[in-house]
Amino acid sequence: MVRITLVRGDITAEEADAVVNAANSSLLGGGGVDGAIHRRGGPEILEACRALRASHYGKGLPTGQAVATTAGRLPARWVIHTVGPVYQASGSDPSLLASCYRESLKVADELGAHTVAFPAISTGAYGWPMEEAARIAVEAVRGAGTAVDEVRFVLFDEPAYDTFARELR
To answer: Model confidence over 69-85: pLDDT tens digits?
Structure first.
């Protein structure tokens, strides 16, 4: 069974086999976690993402799916990019958010990753309420049936950390 741990900090500083990027569908960088990973990881990540866009993902990565690239200059081996859903009060689909976690873990299994660091996907600019996002994330990881040994939720601030900690109890 996968061990779930919590860290308050910066996901770009995590030493893990894979860090998960809360990417936008273009895979070409953006704000929040996505921008931070691209900036700290360096041009190698953008280069790998451009190659993905030129081959398999010409229209971008669909919401809820995941794909891996090099981690560039990050202290990880790989970046797993996943596109979370944008929250809308009516019509938000929690299954798409859960899919981000499951599909990322599937990619991690294919890579042979033992440790995977996740941000709180879709809780920034995409507006997902932290309590609901934490519940979905923890349930998805617990139910994933992965070979990953440790999933680390790396949470940027104390309120996010506290919300995930309550969900793990």
So the answer is: 999 999 999 999 999 99
| Cβ atoms 50, 14 nearer than 8 A | no
- 10 given a catalytic annotation: no
**Domain span holding position 77:** 3-168
Total structural domains in the chain? 1
| Active-site residue (options: 10, 17, 34, 162) | 34
How far, in Å, are 25, 148, 169 from residue 22 at the CA level? 10, 19, 25
How far is 151 from 127, CA to CA, in rounded Å?
23
Of 110, 104, 84, the closest CA to residue 95 belongs to 84
- Structure tokens given for 125: 């600019």
d(CA 116, CA 153): 9
CATH assignment of the domain containing 16? 3.40.220.10
What's the pTM?
Answer: 0.97
pLDDT in tens, 3-33: 999 999 999 999 999 999 999 999 999 999 9
